[in-house]
Amino acid sequence: MENERNAEMRLPSLDDLFSNQQERDEARLKKIYEIPIEEIDPFPDHPFKVKDDEDMMNLTESVKANGVLTPATVRRKEDGRYELLSGHRRLRASQLAGFNTLRCEVVEMGRDEATVFMVESNFQRTTILPSEKAFAYKMRLDAMNRQGQRNDLTFSPVDKKLRSGEGLSKEVGDSQAQIYRYIRLTELIPELLDMVDEGSMALRPAVELSYIPKLQQGHLWELMDMYSCTPSHDQTIRMRRMSEEGKLSPEVIEAIMSEEKPNQKEKIVLRADRFSSLFPSDLPMSKREDYVAAAMEFYARHRERQREREEAR
């Protein structure tokens, strides 16, 4: 019985014997360092964009006034430099603020663990572009698949992919189907992907276009610029099917794009800065189209009278 009680007793470690409680508490805290920015490398193929926009200017002013309140996270590389896992915007703001160092927490992680951490931390942003989701999901899923690799013959790579997708879906809130739609966007040429980010092309048509070769995507993009319109979902489905059948030639793409779509008929856009002062101040917005039509009809009659007078001379 006495032996059992002795076995349950925890012997003090050397740290317990030769350090006080404050020192032991401090040892458990994260170690934060001021690391020279020139020694920090961005994460390879970092999918999240860092723009010098209004939000960045506001962040820069905050950093100037208060410093970096939340430390960035880096890991030490084999060459002694550091790799940035989270805090790319904070690093850029520090540069713009004129700082030479960045407050960082240094962590020890392998490549795949670092990839998962990088994606998770950046998904805390309030706004994430479709292209950012696309590459982030792809990197995260690839890393999760590698982390879950098994060598036994009964383990199916397809099952592994499905389980990884299910796990990611639970974490990020998008369905598995939606995650794989986003990942398909990584197969688009940059010009088409930019249109998805800008909101001028919807996700579903863009996914269909991701299945046609990039050379044909480039030809399509040129025609979209020519016709000032984007293909409908139905048109992209037809293009994908014809591409899979080996029938999607440049001529076929042009024939499809030249079709008139009810929601993309030619429109006349009036610039507010040029025409707003010409409308009566009490004219409701809903009546402006009628006002413009009446003015054009009046001008057309004026031109007709001018033509008749010239012919009468």
Characterise the protein shown here:
- By secondary structure, the chain is an alpha/beta fold.
- Among the domains are: 26-124, Conserved hypothetical protein from pyrococcus furiosus pfu- 392566-001, ParB domain (Alpha-Beta Complex); 188-261, no CATH class.
- It has helices at 2-8, 14-18, 21-28, 54-66, 88-96, 111-122, 130-147, 157-172, 176-184, 190-198, 203-209, 214-227, 233-244, 250-257, 272-275, 288-312; strands spanning 32-36, 40-41, 72-76, 82-86, 101-107.
- Strands 1-5-3-4-2 form a 5-stranded mixed beta sheet.
- A hairpin with a 5-residue loop joins strand 3 and strand 4 (82-86).
- Helix 7 (130-147) packs across helix 8 (157-172) and helix 7 crosses helix 9.
- The protein is flat, with a radius of gyration of 30 Å.
The whole-number mean of residue pLDDT values reads 79
Class per helix and strand makeup? alpha/beta
| Total of DSSP H or I helical runs spanning 4+ residues | 16
**Strand runs, count:** 5
Helix content: 55-70%
- In which order are the strands of the major sheet placed? 1-5-3-4-2
Question: What's the arrangement of secondary structure elements?
Answer:
Blueprint: H1 2-8, H2 14-18, H3 21-28, E1 32-36, E2 40-41, H4 54-66, E3 72-76, E4 82-86, H5 88-96, E5 101-107, H6 111-122, H7 130-147, H8 157-172, H9 176-184, H10 190-198, H11 203-209, H12 214-227, H13 233-244, H14 250-257, H15 272-275, H16 288-312
Parallel strand pairs: 2-4, 3-5
Antiparallel strand pairs: 1-5, 3-4
Helix pairs in contact: 4-5, 6-7, 7-8, 7-9, 11-13, 12-14
